[in-house]
Amino acid sequence: MKHYLTIDIGGTFIKYGLMGEDWRSPEEKTQATQKDPLLFLEQVKSIVRDYGNRIEGIAICMAGFIDPVTGDNTDYSVGENFRTYNLKKELEDLTGKRVVVENDSNCAALGEMLAGAAKGCRDFCLITLGTGIGGAIVIDGRLVRGRHFKAGEVGQIRLWGNPDSEENCESAGATSALVRKVSGMLGREVDGRYIFGHLDEKGIADIYGEWLEKVALTAGNMAMTLDPELLLVGGGVCSQKRLIDDLRERVYGLYPHLEEYTEIRACETGNLAGRIGALSLLLKEVRK
């Protein structure tokens, strides 16, 4: 079986490993993401060099407004390490192999359609909750990127019209915002697992309720705009069943008619979703 190098580049960690056309990965390796642009480029090149001639091509998912043809990342909200160098060009020049680079939420949606919770679904949207909020749209089985590769970027939407506020969906509803506010209240650093294990404590419950409202508005507005069969929720926090149950209740409370025709589910492929989606795009290019 042919193998490909699949790389999921996050703001905190890079996850990577070989993957076959059956979407199985015999390994998963992790490195902390370098923030300096040149160090970041050398880090990715070093990962690729380690695999040498064992790979047929390279599939990358990462944050950004990414042109799938040129590989240019024009996202103003990501770090300089993500947009200073064109990874598609750099790695094709390095290896002579085919390289695909695509937005991570777009890849996660494709991964779920191929091997996860959206299997058999033709019209759905996805939001990912993490350091920020990402989004993706699939209509009639096709990924919708938009004219400037920004389609589905619900994290950039404002929840209200106060011109003096810089808060948008991403800064208010990302998992990092929940963790930051609870940590500030407690006066010590905690993580999402701690929060979901202590939701019955009043202070934490209040912060969680305010945060959930913003996530529900973001998800519900996306579903109202696109009329999908399915709304998927991704990110590490979606493994918490309590969140999915609470989100369903709140979204359907805000938009009661959605309950009849838009199902809300957690993603199922976990950390592999983005890498599966990126590889599917690479295989499509190879088969051309």
Quickly list its features.
288 residues; alpha/beta; 5-stranded mixed sheet; ROK family protein
Describe this structure in words.
The protein has 288 residues and is α/β, with parallel strands linked by helices. It has helices at 37-51, 80-83, 87-95, 104-115, 169-173, 175-186, 192-197, 202-226, 241-254, 258-261, 273-287, and strands at 4-9, 13-19, 29-32, 57-62, 98-103, 124-129, 133-139, 142-143, 230-234, 263-266. The chain has eleven helices and ten strands. Strands 3-2-1-4-5 form a five-stranded mixed β-sheet, with helices on both faces. A hairpin with a 2-residue loop joins strand 7 and strand 8. InterPro entries: ATPase_NBD (IPR043129), ROK (IPR000600). It holds the Pfam family ROK. Belongs to the ROK (NagC/XylR) family.
Number of strands: 10
Spans of 5+ residues with little confidence (pLDDT < 50)? Answer: none
Helix content estimate: 40-55%
Number of helices: 11
Beta-strand content bin: 15-25%
Euclidean distance between termini CA atoms: 19 Å
Q: What integer is the average pLDDT?
A: 92
* Pattern of helices and strands: EEEHEHHEHEEEHHHHEHHEH
Strand arrangement across the biggest beta sheet: 3-2-1-4-5
Provide the structure class.
Answer: alpha/beta
What shape does the CA trace take? Answer: globular
Cα gyration radius (Å): 19 Å
The biggest beta sheet is recorded as: 5 strands, mixed
InterPro entries: ATPase_NBD (IPR043129), ROK (IPR000600)
Organism: Candidatus Eisenbergiella merdigallinarum
Pfam family, one: ROK
Family: Belongs to the ROK (NagC/XylR) family.
